[in-house]
Amino acid sequence: MKGAGTRLLMAATLALAVGCGEEAVGDEPFAVMLPDDLVFDETPALKRLTDVYEATGKGVVLLMEVPREDTRRYGVVESTPQADGTLLIHDMVEKPDPADAPSNWAIVGRYVFPPGFCQRIRNTEPGTHNEIQLTDAMRALAQDEGMIGVPLT
Fold first, then answer.
1. CA 67, 112, 4 angle in degrees (round to 5)?
2. Does residue 78 come out as left (phi exceeding 0), alpha (psi in the -120 to 50 range) or beta?
3. Report field, pTM of the whole predicted structure over 0.85
């Protein structure tokens, strides 16, 4: 993976921000790291995610367990634990009411996306607040091709 950065000079959804990097990433897999999430782990989180991507070819996201009452602050996944300690993601929802959250596995700001993911963002219909949400594009990816969650350790 090569490195590139994109900076927005106006307010936008995360999906639009990620989509702005399309020219830089071309038809390559790419990582997204949100600067407002500081992650400390024995093995760097991005290394863990890229290793899983290289092994599976599927989109990968970092996850952490949160108290059920905090699920309203995160994208939350529905998943199945795998023998290797990862989670196979089936579905996800952005900031659910705790009573409706499919789990307490929350998405942390580290992602690895496969080639073509920016096209998927462009094809995503506006959802919550009539905005295109990254979670909705990721949900489609999970349902069409599968996505893997890597728990924060």
1. 125
2. beta
3. yes
